[in-house]
Amino acid sequence: MDWRKRGSVTGIKDQGNKGRKGGLMIVAYDLLLQNNGGGITTETNYPYEEAQKVCKTEQPAGVTISDRKFVPPNKSSLLKAVVNQPIFVGIAAKGKRLGEIV
């Protein structure tokens, strides 16, 4: 299932290493749910720019997220999750195990 083909998500953006550390993606989703009613704007309304800037927070929501769940770290669970909705995946790219996951 490729959610990009349905227009539900955009392609991967290379954000480089700009001080992001593991776990911040979870914090971002929690803040989104708590402070923005789960609303996320679209790429059309707010295109990604590779630059250090202050985010424009007043954008119309294109989709609403109601919750987040952890998926067990195995292929079967990941496939079951991705069939139902777009998902985000965080990978701790540390050590030799990364090659085993991909």
TrEMBL record:
GO MF annotation list: cysteine-type peptidase activity
Pfam families on file: Peptidase_C1
Protein name, per record: Peptidase C1A papain C-terminal domain-containing protein
Family to which this protein belongs: Belongs to the peptidase C1 family.
Domain Peptidase C1A papain C-terminal: 16-96
PANTHER family attached to this UniProt entry: CYSTEINE PROTEASE FAMILY C1-RELATED (PTHR12411)
One Gene Ontology biological process: proteolysis
